[in-house]
Every structure is written in C-alpha cells, then in structure tokens.
Write a structure and sequence with these properties.
By secondary structure, this protein is mainly alpha-helical. The protein folds into two domains: 1-98, Winged helix-like DNA-binding domain superfamily/Winged helix DNA-binding domain (Arc Repressor Mutant, subunit A), CATH 1.10.10; 101-136. It has helices at residues 16-28, 33-40, 48-61, 82-97, 102-110, 117-134; strands at 64-67, 75-78. The chain has a two-stranded antiparallel sheet. It is elongated and about 55 Å long.
Amino acid sequence: MPRRSAGARERPELSRLETEIMDVVWRLGECSSAEVIAAHSKVRRLAPTTIRTVLANLRRKGYLEPIPTIEPGFRLRPTVERESVVRRTLKNLVAGLLGGSPRQAIAWLLKDENLNDADLDEIRRLIDSQRKGKRP
C-alpha cells in the first residue's frame, strides 16, 4: 500500500516495461528486488539486471521508495497508487488516440469480442449508476 497519497501527475510517465514491473510491485506490496524478479518471471523472463535497472529507474522517477530493514539489501514500496497511474494513462490515451472522446474509447472497448454477458451486465450497471448520480 503506498505510504504517500501523491498522485502520478507530477511524475514522469511510465514506459511499458516500467508499467509491467510496477504491476508486479503493486501486487506484492512491500517487496525486495529478488521477490519482484521471481514474480515477474511468471509473466515473462527478463534478466535480473534488467529488472533491477527498471526498479532503480522507478525509484528515480518517484514511483518507489526504499524501506529500511534489518535484512541484507532493502525492500521497496510503491509511492503511487495503481488507480492514479491508470487514470492518468487512460486520460492520455483517450486524449492522444481518440481525440479526447470517452465515447469513442468505450465504443472501441465494446467491440472487444472477449466481453461476455456478465461483463456487459456489469457495464450496464455502471452506466445506470452514472446516470442516477448525474440526475438532480
């Protein structure tokens, strides 16, 4: 769980690989680089030095911070919540590729053939909930 409540706005954007590594860190919570390497190897195999370099870049960008410990080495924890990064990334994607149109983004997602009836029902509930919230 991130200790600080700062959002991702003031930090540089994440590369695809940095996002992949942050996803592992968010799932693990406080962790060592060895734990990140082990967990990431289940996603795809990268050299441990590559992952350690990405972790160092994430620290430099302010997405991770070291935690003092009595263990050899140190542990890391995220300083930014996943939702903050997802929100900013999605807004940038919609603005850059879809002319700022959330409607267009939703239309593209609805064309995804992997949506099952349960997914569509949940989307309908979200839309209905949004409509109720906007009514006076």
